[in-house]
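Our consortium's second objective concerns turning raw sequence data into structural hypotheses that experimental partners can test. To show how far this objective has progressed, the report includes one record in full. It was chosen at random from the queue rather than selected for favorable results. The single chain below, 311 residues long, was entered without modification.
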Amino acid sequence: MNTELKKLHYLTLRNIKLYFKDKMTFFVSLITPIILLVLFITFLKSTYTNSILSIIGDYQLDEKLINAFTGGWLFSSVLSVSCITVAFCSGMMVLDKINKSHIDFMVAPIKKSTIQISYVLSNLFSTLIVCLVLLIIGIIYLCVVGFYLSFVDILLILINIFLTSLFGTLLANIIWSFTNSQGVLSGVCTFVSALYGFICGAYMPINSMGEGMQNFTSLLAGTYSTILFRQSFLNGTLNEMGKTLPNEMVEGIADGFDCNFSFFGYELSTLTMYFILIGVTLILFTTLILITKIKSKKHIHKNNKAKNNLN
C-alpha cells in the first residue's frame, strides 16, 4: 500500500511539473481569464456601473461601493471560468498518449488505477494553484477599490473553487480518456475556453439573455457554480447597498447580476445549488471509475489474447 502511494505521489508531482513547465499550455489555459480582464478594463466596468446607476435612479451610492460590486463581479467571473478552462488545459493524460509515455507506464509495475488517479490529482492541484493565485489577486484588488467580503464569504469561495475545480477535472478526464490526438486536445481546449465564458454568464449576466438560453444554462451544473461565486463575492456589497437603497432596488440589482437564479421559474436556494453541483460531481466521479475499470479490463483481455497467440 505504501509503495503504491509513493508511486502515486511521484506521478502526481511529475504531471504538475510538466504542466507548469509547458509555457504554451499554461498560457492557453488562461486565455479566457485574460480576455475577461481586458474586456473589464476596456468597457465592462463602465457598462456595469451604468447599469447600476440606471437602476438606482436618483439615489446616491458611494463610488467605492460601486467599484467593489463591479470588481466582485469580475473576479467571480474569472474564477468560475478558470476552474473549468484550467482543468481542461492542465491535464497531462493526452500529452502522455501523444508522446507515447503511457506505453512506459503500461509495462511498469504500476496499477492502471494509480496512473489514472495521478492524472486526476495533478489536474486538480494544478487548477487549484492557478485559481487560488487568481483569488489572491482578486482580494488584493478589492482591498484597493472596496472590500466587503466576510470570513464566511471567503470560506464559501474556497469551497466553491474546490468543488468547481473537481467538477471540471473529472469532466476533462472523462473526455481525455477517449482522446489520443494533439488536434483534438487543442480543439477542445480552445472550444471550452471560448464558449464557456458565454454559457456560464461570465461575459454577460444570464438574466439578460433570452428565455431559451436561460433555460439551457439552467441545465448546466457550471451555471450554479457561477451563481454561487456571484453570491459569495457580492453578498457583502449588496448588504451594504441595502443601508442606502430600498430592498426592492437591491433585489433588482441582485436579480439583474445573477445573484439569484431560478430553474424554469422555480427559485433555487443556495443550499440547493450546492447539492446540484455536488450531485453532478459525484456522477462524474462514478462515470470515470467505470470508464477506468472497463478500459483496464479491455487492456488485460488484449494482453492475454496476445500471449495466447504467441503460445
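The partners drew two points from this record. The longest strand covers residues 262-263. Residues 113 and 292 are 7 Å apart (CA to CA). Both points have been shared with the crystallography group to help prioritize constructs.
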